[in-house]
Amino acid sequence: DGYVNRWLVVAPKRVCTDVWPLEAPKWAPGLSLALAVGSPAQRTAALMDPDADVVVINYDNLDKLENLDGFDGIVFDELTRLKNPSGKRFKALDKLLANVKVRWGLTGSFTSNGLEDVFGQCKIIDQSLLGRAKGAFLATVTHELRTPLTSIITGTRLLRMGWKERNDLVERTLSTLEKSSQVLMSVISDVLDYSKLEA
Description:
By secondary structure, the chain is an alpha/beta fold. The protein has helices at 13-18, 20-27, 40-48, 88-94, 115-125, 131-162, 168-198; strands at residues 7-11, 33-36, 54-58, 73-77, 102-106. Strand 4 (73-77), helix 4 and strand 5 form a beta-alpha-beta unit.
């Protein structure tokens, strides 16, 4: 029906204990709030509390959640905590989100790595944002890697051509640098080809 009956709020522990209990009555005086922090028994009691409209849990306890049954909305307070799709908490949460239709992300922090960080955050909030954008993301990343790598390969070749008196160590180092760069360029090209197939 377009409405959320029960919210799960995921936040840093200090925000769970010091901010949400003080702020929630100001913006939602009719909603009851339960804190799922502390001991396993306290977390379970809060998560199972049928009278709690909003349950607040900290990021460090995400991997302890078995399901999100009963929650139809989730708020990620400080969304930047979920920027790494290969991280433990990201994987734990990603498995549970299928039935949670309303997802909101709150953050006051800038993303430090640009597109790389935004990719993970978009994946958690709405994977449809990534559809064709995932291919564009991969293409951009591979382009950003290819450009400096091309300079390294070209520079190595120029050194080889212009360096008349090379000893064995210099020759091995230049050879290793060129071979390693070629292998990396091949991997980047494979990723780019994969992203074109998906687009």
